[in-house]
Amino acid sequence: MNIRIQEGLPYVTVALTYRGKQLTLEHVLLDAGSAGTLFAADKVLAIDLWLEPHDVVHRIRGVGGTEFVFAKRIDTLAVGELQ
Q1: The total number of structural domains that make up the chain
Q2: pLDDT digits over 25-58, tens only?
Q3: Contact (Cβ atoms closer than 8 angstroms) between residue 48 and residue 18
Q4: Which residues, listed in sequence order, are joined to residue 23 by a DSSP beta bridge?
Q5: Which of 30, 32, 38 is nearest to 12 (CA)?
Q6: How far is CA 27 from CA 51, 52, 68, 76, in A?
């Protein structure tokens, strides 16, 4: 796994696979203190990952305020050799 430090923050490249389609995101913040993983909805649209009627929607809170996010299971998430 290659961790890059930019402006004091750790970033990695992540490969997502959803329903057989793969997407590589090159500038993903590595947050070891987070309880989950979030990706921008506009980025994952490239592999047809979007909100569907049966998906669970959550309200999350953070330093920037409150957001609504949807939960989805994906085929794989890989960071370097780790899956």
Answers
A1: 1
A2: 999 999 888 878 899 999 999 999 999 999 999 9
A3: yes
A4: 16
A5: 30
A6: 23, 26, 22, 18
